[in-house]
Amino acid sequence: MNRSVERRQFRAVGTVAGEILVGHRYIHPVRGPVWCPAAPLVVAGLRRAGHRVRETSCLRLAACGEGELFAASYIDPDGHAIGLAAAAHQTDEAGLAAVREVIMTWSAVWRTRRVMVADIQDACTASPYAHEAAGATPDHRRRRIDLVPAQRGRTSGARMTMALAVDSVVGAVDDATCPHVDRAHAEAQRFADRGDHVVIIGQRDHAEASALLALTPERSVVVESEEDVAALRLPADRVSYVVQPGTTIEGAMSALASLRLRYPRSRGAHPDHLCYAASDRLETTRLVIGGSDLTILLGDPEEAASCATNAPTMEVLSDPTALQPSRLAAECIGVVPVGQLGVRLLPRLVTVLSGLGPLAVIHRRITTRTDFAGSWEMTNALQTAGIVENFQAK
After folding, report:
1. Contact 95, 19 (CB under 8 A)
2. Which of 173, 242, 289, 317, CA to CA, is 20 to 30 A from 278?
3. Residue 123: its pLDDT value, please?
């Protein structure tokens, strides 16, 4: 790309004094059509500086034009011409200076980049065996789960920065088929029906914890920490527990260990029905943050505020055109979509970045798969591998 970069000045038509014209395309006399995916960055920068800007689908060059057009372009690996272009009236000295500066500034950050996207918005990838184990039908499995690790303020030291960066990343799944939710509800109801007190290990402000609590409010309690477990006053032989779907397994394990220590006879669901979706989203986000030179938390500022840190390699962005050229020296830019707004903004962000040099977009996701050792399929597979003896043959 570097060897094909060209910066030129042309005459253009369609300009008026006091107004800057920014094109999403222009026709280069040699290279032909030059596409300008990053034009919105130019427009936004000029408007922030107080200039009146008009956008056009195509800037027109003409030897006798009344305007001066400043353009920069390069040839991408596929042979397409990509660039930036803006024009001002030849009598508008302030406009001409602004156009020259903005084109030079943005073209100076052209480089080959990678964008690493955290795939945290996908529906739950529960094992198909869980559907059968839950005994659920598609109709009553449909729920909305807000998969938000919300364990703020309980991490100290060097891990606090990372925890804050990922704790409130939202992965809302609408109408998701989730056998884990049905299994948790069925287990909680079964435990309560046999006279046990149900300890829900999760997050009090989580919608699914509230739903579990509402099943048997007189016999259920939510715990989030070891301190919550220590405060329990329950009959030693009448305690069962459910791990709330949508909470991180790592966050639930310390409370579960304390519960088992205090109530050794407590009973819970089989661990092969634990929901790892929130943990997978948490680890995916950590992976992207750790592997990027710059991480963009993309979405609503209020939602992203609790995720952001003061780290110089992290930025909250609710508008892709708010990108600053000073931040774009990064070879790898990580993007964490925050909430549904972040999902909607992602294509716009990738588009403008594609106009700042050859771009590769990669998606990273950590997925946990549960093999159900109690199922016939798993037992048969282990027998085939020679790991488990075939007792039927004996």
Report:
1. yes
2. 317
3. 43
380 Cβ contact list (under 8 Å, min separation 6) = none
State pTM to two decimals: 0.76
Q: Which residue is listed with tokens 């009236």?
A: 89
Contacting residues for 107 by C-beta, under 8 A, at least 6 apart: 5, 7, 72, 83, 84
Q: Which of 112, 99, 117 is nearest to 39 (CA)?
A: 99
Read off the amino acid at residue 16: V
Q: Report which of 70, 4, 1, 58 is spatially closest to residue 31, judged by C-alpha positions.
A: 4
Distance, CA of 112 to CA of 361 (rounded, Å): 11
The candidate with the shortest Cα–Cα distance to 243, out of 208, 215, 217, 218, is 208
Q: Do residues 226 and 262 lie in contact, with contact meaning Cβ atoms separated by under 8 Å?
A: no
**Residue that has been written with the tokens 């909470």 in this structure:** 247
Residue of 163, 161, 139, 141 whose CA lies nearest to 151: 163
> What is the per-residue pLDDT for 379?
61
Identity (one letter) of the amino acid at 160? Answer: M
Number of CB atoms found within 10 A of residue 348's CB: 14
Contact 394, 148 (CB under 8 A): no
Block mean pLDDT (10 aa), the chain, length 394: 93 96 97 97 97 97 95 96 98 97 97 94 46 34 35 30 37 54 91 94 90 91 95 94 91 93 91 87 90 93 70 87 94 93 95 97 90 60 61 45
Helix 39-48 vs helix 93-107: crossing angle, to nearest 10:
130
Angle in degrees, CA 360, 46, 89, rounded to 5: 115
Look at residues 69, 84, 83, 73 and name the one whose alpha carbon lies nearest to residue 20: 69
CA angle 388, 393, 394 (to 5 degrees): 95
- The vertex-102 CA angle with 342 and 310, nearest 5°, equals 45
Measured CA to CA, the distance from residue 22 to residue 69 in angstroms comes to: 9
Classify 375 as helix, strand or coil.
Answer: coil
Distances (CA, A) of 163 to 42, 95, 209, 379: 35, 46, 21, 38
Confidence (pLDDT) at 152: 33
The single-letter DSSP state of residue 244 is P
The Cβ-side half-sphere exposure at 355, using a 13 Å CA radius, reads 27
